Amino acid sequence: MDPRVIVAVLSVLVLTDLTVAYEVIKGNGSCFEVVKTMLDHFMELKSDADKSNELKYQTELQIKDELIKSKDEQIKALKDLNKRNDEQIKALTDLIKSNDARIRAQSEIEELIRIKNSEIEKKNNEIERKETLINSLKNQINEKSEDLKKAGKEKDEFNKKLLSCLDNINKTKNSLMEKEKEIQEKKEEIKRKDDLLNEKDAEIQEKIEQAKSKDFQNKDLTNQINVLSQNLTITIEKLGKSVDPNPCKNVSKDIYQIRLPGVSAFEAPCNGSGWMVIQRRIDGSVDFNRNWTEYRDGFGNLTGEFFIGLEKLHLITQSGQHELLIRLGKVDGSTAFEKYDNFRIGSEKDSYPLESVGIPTGGAGDSLTKHHLNMKFSTIDRDNDEDAFNCARRLGGGWWFNICGHSSLNGRFNKDGKGKSKNGIIWGSWHRYDYTVSLTFVEMMIRPKPF
Ligand SMILES: *[C@@H]1O[C@H](CO)[C@@H](O)[C@H](O)[C@H]1NC(C)=O
Ligand SMILES: *[C@@H]1O[C@H](CO)[C@@H](O)[C@H](O)[C@H]1NC(C)=O
Ligand SMILES: *[C@@H]1O[C@H](CO)[C@@H](O)[C@H](O)[C@H]1NC(C)=O
Ligand SMILES: *[C@@H]1O[C@H](CO)[C@@H](O)[C@H](O)[C@H]1NC(C)=O
Ligand SMILES: *[C@@H]1O[C@H](CO)[C@@H](O)[C@H](O)[C@H]1NC(C)=O
Ligand SMILES: *[C@@H]1O[C@H](CO)[C@@H](O)[C@H](O)[C@H]1NC(C)=O
Ligand SMILES: CC(=O)N[C@H]1CO[C@H](CO)[C@@H](O)[C@@H]1O
């Protein structure tokens, strides 16, 4: 082999990667055979060298790692040191701060002490001044007590005078007490006189009581006499003798006690012209829807609205001929009357029938004869009429109802003067049998015929 080629290959091997050189050389067959052995040797050497290099690198790396580790530890230690130092610095700073505060407080206290001291000094000065004042006051007191001593002497003299004054007062008081005693005696005497007066009063009272009881006795006797005289009247009446056949004659307009044959005494209004009022409607203040007993005995208010009672009418009209006068009034103020010359009522046994009315005269017209003559009296609880219904219950009040009829003076009082289907106060012949009319004034009166 040409030595130059060997040199060139070696140069290439040295200058380039051995493996590349190996490939390059292998490509040229002729040369390869020559350098193969040498190249293999080189390759072996190179591989050994590579191995030792590897070892060297690894060792180096290990050393570096150790180094880094130790550096890290150093850094950590330093960090810790720094930290500790920081803490120390902080602690020191705090200490300095607290010392500053203490120093400040101390200086404040010192300032305070200074101020207090100056105040104490002021007080001391004041005390000193006070002491001076006290001393001067003490002197003044001493002077005053001297004065007082002098005054004490004067006071003793005054006391003496006062005692003599009190003595005088005592004397006056004693004489006053004597006077009081005298007054007391007088008072007692007066009391004795009073007691005497009271006794006299009691005596008088007793006498009055006695007189009163005598009065009562008198009254009782009077009552007895009254009863007796009433009984006597009744007896006489029962014997058929007329006590006063004409009770309203010659008396003024007022309510009188009436005594008539066959009737016990009763009260009735006289109209001042001989008429006795037996029924009156003026204001609707009295309810006329009454039962049989009430129509029999009478009801209402003799100075206002009332009905005298059927039993009385029966007894009066049976005792002799009587006139009946009916006065009527409408809500418009117009008035009319109708008079009958022979009014007579039957007994309760026959239901108080309208036995007679006689001859009618007057402007109101006759609303009795045609339908009511000989009819029995009917009330809400006693249906004696000729109607299928109870007329008293249907029209109101009580009357000598037939198939009800043309008149009903005890009907419902309507202040407005308007009635409904005969339920008001009606007297047909006077208001043209218009039963929407309801009268607002009625007065029924009787008197003995030969007046
Ligand atoms: C006045 O009288 C009373 C008793 O009457 C007596 O106790 C008192 O000492 C008397 N005073 C004088 C000042 O006489
Ligand atoms: C009066 O008459 C009544 C009944 O008529 C009778 O009860 C009474 O006892 C009589 N009184 C005297 C005192 O007669
Ligand atoms: C009627 O009254 C007059 C006067 O008040 C009186 O003089 C006369 O006697 C009376 N007549 C009767 C019957 O009572
Ligand atoms: C009594 O009534 C009659 C009849 O209505 C009448 O003429 C007379 O004036 C009345 N008397 C009095 C005092 O009112
Ligand atoms: C009638 O009416 C009066 C008064 O309301 C009552 O006291 C009496 O018991 C009545 N009589 C009858 C029989 O209903
Ligand atoms: C009776 O009627 C009159 C006249 O309406 C009235 O002034 C009086 O108060 C009535 N009295 C009684 C007790 O209702
Ligand atoms: C292909 C290649 O490089 N061939 C070479 C091989 O070696 C001989 C001798 O040195 C050269 O003449 C060729 O050119």
From TrEMBL:
PROSITE patterns: FIBRINOGEN_C_1 (PS00514), FIBRINOGEN_C_2 (PS51406). Keywords: Coiled coil, Disulfide bond, Glycoprotein, Secreted, Signal. It comes from the Eukaryota. GO terms for cellular component: extracellular region. Residues 64-210 form a coiled coil. The keyword Glycoprotein applies. Residues 239-450 form the Fibrinogen C-terminal domain. PANTHER family: FIBRINOGEN ALPHA CHAIN. The keyword Ribosomal protein does not apply. InterPro entries: FIB_ANG-like, Fibrinogen-like_C, Fibrinogen_a/b/g_C_1, Fibrinogen_a/b/g_C_dom, Fibrinogen_CS. Residues 1-21 form the signal peptide. It is found in: Secreted. This is Fibrinogen C-terminal domain-containing protein.
